[in-house]
Amino acid sequence: MWLEVETKVKLNSSDVPELREKIKRIARFKARGKKADDYFAIKSKGYPKKAFRIRAMKNKFEVNFKKHLKKYWTKEIVVKKEFEFQLKGKDEVESLLTLFNDLNFVEWVRKIKWNETYKHKKDKRISIEINRVKHLGYFMEIEYLCKPREMKKGRRKILRVLKELDIKPSQIDNTGYTRMLWDKGTKEKRKFLERSING
Fold first, then answer.
1. Which of 16, 141, 147, 181 could staple 129 via S-S, CB 3.0–4.6 A?
2. Positive or negative: CA dihedral 4, 56, 113, 26
3. Is beta strand 126-133 parallel, antiparallel or unpaired with respect to 105-120?
4. What is the C-alpha to C-alpha distance for residues 143 and 161, in angstroms, rounded to an integer?
5. What does the DSSP 8-state code read for residue 172?
6. C-alpha dihedral, 159 to 161 to 162 to 167, nearest 10°
7. Which domain covers residue 113, as residue numbers?
8. Of 37, 8, 197, which is closest to residue 113 (Cα–Cα)?
9. CA neighbor of 137 nearest in space, from 108, 117, 114, 116
10. Local mean pLDDT, 10-residue blocks, the chain (199 residues)
11. Which positions ≥6 away from 151 have C-beta within 8 Å?
């Protein structure tokens, strides 16, 4: 079982060039890309307490659910347990989508994120991302993937990276992207269920 130990920092667009140079001093560039995630939850009036996402990839669909382990959270760092599986082929996808409909799941928000990813030079398990999220702006995420027994070490490593990058505690905002989109009233969708079933 792997845990995600992570923190998120809100950025002004003007902060990004200088921060990128600081990141390059301690980490190596790995990849740049775009991720479009469609989130589903049981139909309700308020913000969903639990949800999962589907990411459509080239030849498959990735289904992901994250359980928040709040008893391990601090002001700066959150810990999540990730569950993920992949579906290949139209039949598998259609079967799952039919089940979603039957269980009263609805697509409630879409998140589109452009990211550039770096790996720390001293520990490749430390991932640093600069993200631009549609409707929300720029963020930096620092993530450490670890076993439960390594969680405290992961927290220490993330705090060290925050110091290396001169990030102040007041800049940290671990509010989830979907919550931010919900609070803004931005619930962009791509009609995932209808398109997948009918297409």
1. 141
2. positive
3. antiparallel
4. 10
5. B
6. 160
7. 3-198
8. 37
9. 114
10. 94 97 98 93 86 85 92 95 87 83 88 97 97 97 96 96 96 95 76 45
11. 3, 5, 72, 79
Residues 71-99 as b/e (b if ≥16 CB within 10 A, e otherwise) read: ebeeebbbbbeeeeeebeeeeebeebbee
| 119 within 8 A of 30, measured Cβ to Cβ | yes
Cα-based torsion angle of the residue sequence 181, 107, 92, 114 in order, rounded to the nearest 10 degrees: -20
- Counting every residue written for the chain, the total comes to 199
Q: Residue 76 and residue 91: Cα distance in Å, rounded?
A: 43
Q: Where in 22-136 does DSSP place strands (E)?
A: 27-42, 52-56, 61-68, 78-87, 105-120, 126-133
Number of domains in the chain: 1
pTM for this prediction? 0.88
Give the model's pLDDT for residue 94. 80
Residue 118: count of CB within 10 angstroms of its CB: 20
Q: Hey, what are 69's tokens? A: 């382990």
d(CA 113, CA 32): 11
Q: Quick one: pLDDT at residue 61?
A: 87
Q: Which residues contact 155 (CB under 8 A, 6 or more apart)?
A: 5, 74, 77
